[in-house]
Amino acid sequence: MPVVTGENLPQSKPEEFTIRVKVGEKGQADRVFVVGADSRGAMYGVGRLLRELKCSRGEIKLGAALNVWSSPEYPARGHELGYRARANSYDAWSKEQYEQYIREQVVFGMNTVQGIPFQDKRTNALMQYSREEMNRTIGKICAKYDLDYWVWTPVEFSLTDEKLRQAELVKHETFYKSTPRLDAVFVPGGDPGENPPELVLPFME
Q: Which helix H or strand E contains 75, and what residues bound it?
């Protein structure tokens, strides 16, 4: 059964989708329609369709009565993927494995990835790439699948130190220019870091 994607829904909320099965008449093939309110809706609709399929050796089935309408309960559905030595698993992954993992999360409705580009400078022998290269790669993957890319960037020194402050700003600017997608930057005031708001807010600006 061919899958047909579309762009219009009676509803207009972001990321909504419907799935309809149209049974063919008089020798016509059955058809499945996956219709998203936007490109993300179509993508999540296809993910839901994949989860509805009944697969066995040499056969894939889908119930003719399938009639789905779905709208996200939460606008942000994310996963933190900080490529660093303390990850315990995905620090050893290749770029292709990262993309597969993120793509599989999309099948279940993920729309946000949060990276940790700077914090924790340790590396280990399992890491196949530099952190800078993998941070760029994650940004590329998010751009490819239209996922939000957030970063968590704590400041672990006193912002009263002007030399360290300027070096940190240069590091941020270099990263921002290198990534093909960036939707949000979170600079915590603590845990880690001990800077008060009157120092953190101007730094963020």
A: none
Task: For residue range 109-137, list pLDDT tens digits in order.
Answer: 999 999 999 987 788 899 999 999 999 99
With a CB cutoff of 8 Å and minimum separation 6, the contacts of 40 are 14, 15, 111, 146
Order of strands, sheet of 112-115, starting from the edge strand that comes earlier in the sequence:
78-80, 112-115, 148-152, 184-186
- Please, which residues bridge with residue 4 across strands? 33
d(CA 157, CA 45): 45
Partners of 167 in beta bridges: none
CA-CA-CA-CA dihedral for 183, 186, 85, 164, to nearest 10: 120
Which residues have C-beta within 8 Å of that of residue 72, sequence separation ≥ 6?
A: 13, 14, 15, 16, 44, 109, 111
- Residue 28 burial (C-beta neighbours within 10 Å; 0-12, 13-18, 19+): exposed
Q: How far is residue 173's CA from residue 157's CA, in Å, rounded to a whole number?
A: 18
| pTM, two decimal places | 0.86
